[in-house]
Amino acid sequence: MNQIQSVLITGANAGLGREAARQLALKKGIAKIYLACRNPNKAEAAKAALENETGRKIFEVVLMDVTDPKAVRAAVAELSTPIDAVILNAGGTGGQRPNSLTREGVTNIFATNVLGHFVLVDELLQRQLVTSTILYAGSEAARGIPKMGMNRPDLSQGTVDEFKAIADGSKFGPEGDPLQTYGYAKLVAALWMGAMARQHPHIRFVTMSPGGTTGTAGFDDLPLMKRIFFKHVGGVLMPLFGMMHGVETGAKRYLDGLFNPEFKTGRFYASRAGYPTGPVVDQANIDETLSNITTQDNAEQALRQFA
Predict the structure, then answer these.
(1) Would you put residue 242 in left (φ > 0), alpha (ψ -120 to 50) or beta?
(2) Cβ 131 vs Cβ 98: under 8 Å
(3) What whole-number distance in Å separates Cα of residue 189 and Cα of residue 193?
(4) Model's pTM, two decimal places?
(5) What is the DSSP string of 78-115?
(6) What domains are defined for the chain?
(7) 43-62: b (≥16 Cβ within 10 Å) or e
(8) Residue 292 to residues 157, 216, 227, 287: CA-CA distances in angstroms?
(9) How far apart, in whole angstroms, are the C-alpha atoms of residue 6 and residue 22?
(10) Residues 91-143: pLDDT tens digits?
């Protein structure tokens, strides 16, 4: 694999994405960091702050809305220099209308977490604009965190049709709980990454959960009471019980996934069973579905029907 000198990060103006950019800028050998953001004002503010904090002028803004495949394709078309690594960090609970459908026919929550990144990776590969590693921000929700009210996603058969039903929301109905559908979306993405690793052996595809992280923007659009719990009450109490850690720890997981060769391509790494923090382990040892080749391929085929 090529040495990583340049990195593109989606959702880079706040939370985990911004912290990952800061940590990368302080790492020897990093010469360029692309801040992929949808809001130009927030992106420029983050760039200025990062330059001030790190003392390095290596940041470049790339305007990209990962909820809109057309915008993703347009952003990639503006890139001319290959990028060594990509951190697919943008995500969340899908805004005020998480179950509403985009023009591609997927729910907002699925577009935010999966489809936009699927299109981004495809465009980068087709244009030969990525050389080393693609890291997707997974989540322990993909195999369930009962202690945090997130049940294990239940796949009946893992067929292409079932994955399409997850993408378009018909598996859950119009009132699907965003905390549960979020876990399903993250599961589909981890399976897709496994399929991509087999299709493109010259690139590392690592799914790495940042863990339960305080200070992240991922749950800003939850209903009021759930948002208060996760952002404020939980943000204070959960770290005391080992159920959340700081954004610095979450972002460091990203860097470990990029630079530590012990994290193998096609694998999904997250905390041990039942916990969203602590040492990371291969999740296939917890849920064998994650390493099922047929299920991985079905997830990838379903995504292609929306892209």
Answers:
(1) left
(2) no
(3) 6
(4) 0.92
(5) T--S-EEEEEE----S-TT-TTSB-TTSSBHHHIIIII
(6) 6-304 (3.40.50.720)
(7) beebbeebeeebebebbebb
(8) 12, 31, 35, 10
(9) 13
(10) 988 878 999 999 999 999 999 999 999 999 999 999 999 999 999 999 999 99
How many Cα atoms are found within 13 Å in the side-chain-facing hemisphere of 306?
31
Q: Are strands 32-37 and 204-208 parallel, antiparallel or unpaired?
A: unpaired
Q: Which two tokens stand for residue 38?
A: 């949808």
Cα separation values, 198 from 123, 160, 194, Å: 18, 18, 7
33 three-state secondary structure: strand
Residues 6+ apart with CB under 8 A from 49: none
Nearest-angstrom CA–CA distance, 102 and 109: 10
Helices marked H in the chain: 15-25, 40-54, 69-77, 108-110, 116-126, 160-168, 178-199, 224-228, 234-237, 247-259, 293-304
Amino acid at 177: D
Task: Check the CA dihedral 230-235-238-243 and report its sign.
Answer: positive
Nearest-angstrom CA–CA distance, 79 and 295: 33
How far is it, in rounded angstroms, from Cα 190 to Cα 299? 9
57-87: per-residue pLDDT in tens? 999 999 999 999 999 999 999 999 999 999 9
Rounded-to-integer distance, Cα 115 and Cα 117, Å = 5
Residue 199 amino acid letter = Q
Tokens of 211: 């863990």
135 beta partners: 87, 206
93, 218 in Cβ contact below 8 A? yes
